[in-house]
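Handout for the seminar on molecular recognition.
Each group receives one record of this type.
Step one: identify the two inputs.
Step two: read the structure output and locate the region that could contact heme C.
Step three: write two sentences on what you found, then compare them with the reference statements printed after the record.
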Amino acid sequence: MKKVWMFGVLAVLATTPVLNSSAADEEKSFVPAVVEASTGAIRVPEGYRLWPTLGTWAHAKTDKALETEGAGVHEYHVVHTQPETIAYYQKTGQFPDGAVLVKELLHAKTMAMTTGPAVGHATTTKGWFVLVRDMKGRYKESKLWGKGWGWSFFNADDSEHAASKNFQVECVPCHIPARQLAPANIVDEDKWIYAFGYPVLQKK
Ligand code: HEC
């Protein structure tokens, strides 16, 4: 008897929110290709390389590598986002709810080419950093969400499970300089982004 009763309660709990709440339906569709709706777990979106590039950061060789190998690039950080995010930002000067920023870290090789003596090109993936804009304060329990974004890092061998555990410790300190470099009049949460490296976001 007890089992049957329990089943009944569970069935009601399981179906009620979905049937009655349009908010739940809306949350279900919050960037479904990137965020697991119930837990907020983020994964690297498939096909992100087909999204437009926001910008590329080139890391030059320094110290020992520069001494032994000569001038060149040792890593590229290529940042992609959805085309709609760029269009929205160009129009409004801010990132929309559900904006996904994927920063792919790529190893690089430098060689002499017909265009110059030290030309770098990207080779293999080293890992990914992913940010998801959240205007509603979702996933308050998660240590990977807060300050208006979902934050996650992934090693190259697993694009589905974040290797980072706590954005306050692993992400925020390094993004504080972005706030100082951001224009004073933009939306506070957008100041976490190094947007000066993305000319395409500038208003047309
Ligand atoms: C060592 C410092 C450092 C750490 C740690 C760090 N970031 Fe960043 N992040 C940067 C810098 C600097 C840039 C832009 C320049 C670059 O990539 O070289 C950047 C850029 C990004 C971008 C591209 C959008 C933007 O802000 O320009 C994403 C996405 C990103 N970081 C996500 C994360 C996440 C998520 C974490 C934590 C898991 C994290 N970062 C931890 C320093 C850091």
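Reference statements: Residues 57, 77, 79, 101, 103, 129-131, 151-153, 164, 167, 170-171, 174-175, 178, 193-194 surround heme C (CB under 6 Å). The radius of gyration is 21 Å.
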